Amino acid sequence: MNLFKTLALxxxxxxxxxxxxxxxxxxxxxxxxxxxVSVDLEKQLSKENNIxxxxxxxxxxxxxxxxxxxxxxxxxxxxxxKEIKVTYKAPNQYIISKPHKVKSINYKVAETFDTEVESYPxxxxxxxxxxxxxxxxxxxxxxxxxxxxQSNPLKIKVTGQEGWKTGTALESKDGYYLANSFDHAVDSPxxxxxxxxxxxxxxxxxxRIFTYSEKGKYTSEALLENMKDMLAASNKFxxxxxxxxxxxxxxxxxxxxxxxxxxxxxxxxxxxLTENEPTDANMKQVTDIASHEFFHxxxxxNIHSEIIESFNFVEPTPSQHLWLYEGVTEWASNILLYxxxxxxFDAYIKNSIRQKIIINENYFDKSWSLERLAKESxxxxxxxxxGNIYYKGxxxxxxxxxxxxxxxxxxxxLRELMLELVDKYGKGRPISEKGFFKDLVQMTYPEIGDFIHxxxxxxxxxxxxxxxxxxxxxxxxxxKSIEIRKMVNPTDxxxxxxxxxxxxx
Length: 505
Ligand SMILES: [Zn+2]
Prior knowledge:
Elements: H1 3-13, E1 22-27, E2 34-40, E3 51-53, E4 71-77, E5 83-84, E6 86-89, E7 93-96, E8 104-110, E9 128-131, E10 134-137, E11 145-146, E12 154-159, E13 165-167, E14 171-173, E15 176-179, H2 182-186, E16 190-193, E17 196-202, E18 205-213, H3 220-238, E19 246-253, E20 261-264, E21 268-274, H4 280-295, H5 306-309, H6 322-339, H7 345-363, H8 370-376, H9 380-385, H10 392-407, H11 414-424, H12 436-443, H13 446-457, H14 464-470, E22 473-478, E23 481-486, H15 492-501
Parallel strand pairs: 1-12, 18-19, 19-21
Antiparallel strand pairs: 1-2, 2-8, 3-7, 3-11, 4-5, 4-8, 6-7, 9-10, 10-16, 12-15, 13-16, 14-15, 17-18, 20-21, 22-23
The structure holds zinc ion.
């Protein structure tokens, strides 16, 4: 790299942060399977900064990833270019013998897409890839931090091909993307290559879309057109979007070799999906996923416990409130479309209740509570059950909504409670990992304590018939043939609760 240019730019730009940033350069032009990363230090490390740490996991993935597995040729140098001894400590650490002498570090990173691993494959939307016409950079798959410097700012330069477009929520200045901490960098994926671009505004919030599509079947313009109603419905549900800008990064592949899906961040989300035909049904599916990821700006990105707030990249540490982060998010992202008129009653019942009941009943181990799903997602058995958080977790959130509506005579459901939580908590004001259930009961009713005990902390059979009955819906059948219909003669109370359930109060 060109050290002179870096220094000249820095002098020109003046101080960017109160602390001296650590400079990273990611070169994606040397090889189509390997990232070349270099780290340049302007300020001397201290003896305590002797570990260079790669991520064991990352926020919102609930998955063990051990990024150290993908690193090779890790070398540290002093200012004269002489090598300094480093020792690899599996799975994710490099111990530097004389940290105070280190001026630069170079290493290679194998892309996660094309690298075989024996266990714990990294979800594609959390991974990395380079091809001739693009690169996907989830920063935690290639950057690390020095022990004690997790909250130090970073400057990240991505060297790609001429003419490539780059999408990320990070601000850029003088050719560098700026992150105010390692956590902030991890929160900000970068997609670069032959991308299409589109933008819009929801209320005052600029929304940007970048898309890589292998055969060009999906464009940012078409995706945006399909997302407009969802974005408007989200805005209505939340009253005001709690972000000042937002970026969608889409990546469509003909034959994805791994788990596809999407990953949420504070100001962006990253999607790795199969590039099938962009029919109405497939477009709708993409929008449904986007609705889910977008709602994550509420939780866990704003409402989360101290375990998420000061994230442990060394040792995966579960939070028992996964039911909130993923279950409530899945419920909200579905019901906001119904309440916003984007999907009708029949479609909502079919896709967001009936289908979820069938999957929970038939495809997962029902004896796992939502709390157990949370606590064990990082081990291999837990990883197999984790997916049920999107089914059972969403159903439990939906029944919590119905219970709250019932107890408040149709005045305050889960949406209204979530809006109160948004006011009360947020970044820098985490919920209490241990005390949150008690706080929730205090904010609501003693009966909510029983609900939490039965359906979140324990795995009582879900009360499908009883709870749907409260809003005048008749539930019948079992196994894979289930029917949910409006009752012919609902009571006044059932009608009142159905009305309340159908709208943003
Ligand atoms: Zn999610």
